[in-house]
Amino acid sequence: MELKDSELIGRIKEGETELLDVLIERHYDGIYRFCYYKTGDREAAYDCTQETFLHLLRYMGTYVEQRKFKAYLYRIAGNVCTDFFRKHGISTVGPEILETMAREDPGLARAELSDQVTEALNMLNPAQREVIILHFFYDFKLREIAQIAEIPMSTAKSRLKQGMDKLKRCMASD
Fold it and tell me: Which of 29, 74, 75, 92 suits 55 as a labelling partner, its CA being 20 to 30 A distant?
């Protein structure tokens, strides 16, 4: 029987440190894809993924489960990627990253992005695009997206609705 994240964390805190491997293995690919989406660079995504798990290891002892661990981990990854941008003097990744990702890493989504969907996603502002990708590609609920992006739930809802409305208009006009 597979242990839940909360059970793994409890046992890790009690000294079963070998379970860290299970926790990391469970979330590694998703965090890597998320960091790749955020940075647009495979090497940077690898570095940010490693830094995310190092941060988790450093602060595991102080982690208190409030909501879902997965959302907490993605928030760490988002912050690590933001630090990466600051450190390298980059403001954000351009929308062309979605096209590159669709070609290079079809595992990002459940299915490959069509050119039409990629083009429509590129027309969204980065905040709307992030909420849509977290919701539809990673199956996060709005509450979790708000936690990851560190925004109010109402802002997450608004970005999702506005982004979906814009996507519908873009898709209908083609």
Answer: 92
